[in-house]
Design brief:
By secondary structure, the protein is of the alpha+beta class. It is about 40% helix and about 20% strand. It has 9 helices and 12 strands.
């Protein structure tokens, strides 16, 4: 379910592999074996048959130059070389089978040879590009797993589920971040969204998560964890300015939640200018208070930090955290996604949607359906509740 663990490690393909090549489409594989060689060979046979059936005044055999080009687009290097050689041989045999006056001759032979050579070169370039693309995807997936680390089921006594959808489907990583950190004073949860996009936003998210994982474990008070996060954000901005990055206005909205080790039935919440979390139960939905803190990195604009809010949360109630990729998703008419109303209607039909896993899947699918699959921003959906006593 977690989007962060979805990118499995790929074995980079052999550029000169004997099979079909690194990026053959799934529909060109049958029973695990490549059949990418079938379309070019079928086309080659069809051209040869049509040429043989036509009159001498109208010859089609020169069309075999298309066959290596098609192989270059869907096959591996050695398969493309084989098809190119076969295309040249087919042309030569077919042309020589006709009387001299009906042969297409040397110019078309040169066309087929040059076209076949260019097709092999194009295939090599394509495979090199695909290899580089897969390598970059592996780097993006590794970065994503580093920032959004995998969390075991029931981590910190919390039943959780999450989905992460990057607005940039190629980069696969953005400025959204979330984590759960168990500690001696209970379990702390953080979800946030760094202002901006790109690698600079990822770097800021990574810095905040590193601080959270240490402070969330060691600090006895949630307010102290919040102050550590604020300090880390300001230090990160100053560092960026020193090395010449334009980070002067960078900040992060976030929600920091504490599940105290003692005091079941309540949570502590500090909201740094983020979307207010929702409490989802089989009976309905309610919002948690927003609080009075500014986003991380902007605390200097206020007189002092606001205290953590201690709020009721029953063990069977699910806390839904999300970034503005959900709340700001628009449909074709420009209407925002009505998350709370959509959840209320869904719970009336099926109260089991309040379970973390079902809840995340429902919100993810509903958001994508509302915006037609066109996300305007990175989207994170994080649902959690205290693990039942008999759940281990």
């Amino acid at each position: 379910m977690r989007g962060a663990s979805a990118g499995a490690h790929r074995r980079l393909p052999d550029l000169t592999g004997s099979g079909g090549g690194p990026a053959e489409h799934q529909f060109l594989r049958v029973g695990g074996y490549s059949v990418a060689w079938v379309p070019p060979l079928v086309l080659l046979a069809a051209i040869a048959v049509v040429d043989w059936k036509t009159s001498g005044e109208f010859r089609t055999i020169s069309w075999v130059v298309l066959v290596p080009g098609i192989a270059a687009a869907i096959c591996g290097l050695w398969t493309t070389i084989g098809v190119a050689v076969l295309a040249v041989l087919t042309y030569e045999l077919e042309d020589n089978a006709w009387p001299h006056q009906f042969r297409t001759g040397v110019p078309d032979f040169i066309l087929v040879v040059v076209g076949s050579g260019l097709a092999v070169l194009a295939c090599a370039v394509r495979l090199r590009g695909e290899r580089r693309m897969l390598h970059m995807q592996d780097i993006a997936d590794t970065t994503r797993r580093t920032v959004l680390r995998p969390m075991p089921a029931g981590w910190g006594g919390i039943e959780h589920a999450a989905a992460y959808l990057a607005a940039d489907s190629v980069a696969r990583v953005g400025g959204d971040f979330y984590d759960i950190q168990p500690g001696p004073r209970g379990t702390r949860v953080l979800l946030g969204d760094v202002q901006g996009k790109g690698l600079d936003a990822v770097a800021a998210a990574s810095a905040l998560l590193g601080t959270f994982r240490e402070a969330g474990y060691h600090e006895p008070l949630l307010a102290t964890v919040a102050e550590r996060l604020e300090t880390r954000m300001r230090r990160h901005v100053r560092y960026g300015a020193e090395i010449g990055r334009d980070d002067d206005d960078r900040f992060a909205t976030a929600v920091l939640v504490g599940f105290p080790q003692t005091g079941a039935g309540c949570v502590e919440v500090i909201n740094f200018g983020h979307e207010p979390p929702l409490v989802v139960t089989p009976d309905g939905v309610r919002s948690l208070p927003i609080g009075e803190r500014l986003p991380l990195g902007l605390a200097g604009l206020t007189g002092g930090p606001a205290p953590a809010l201690r709020l009721p949360l029953a063990d069977e109630e699910t806390l839904l955290l999300f970034t503005d990729g959900v709340s700001e998703a628009r449909d074709a008419a420009g209407e925002f996604f009505p998350l709370r109303d959509t959840l209320a209607h869904a719970l009336a039909r099926d109260p089991r949607i309040a379970e973390p896993g079902r809840l995340v899947r429902f919100v993810r699918d509903s958001t994508l359906r509302h915006c037609g699959g066109h996300l305007g921003d990175d989207t994170t959906i994080f649902a959690l509740r205290r693990r039942a006593a008999d759940g281990g």
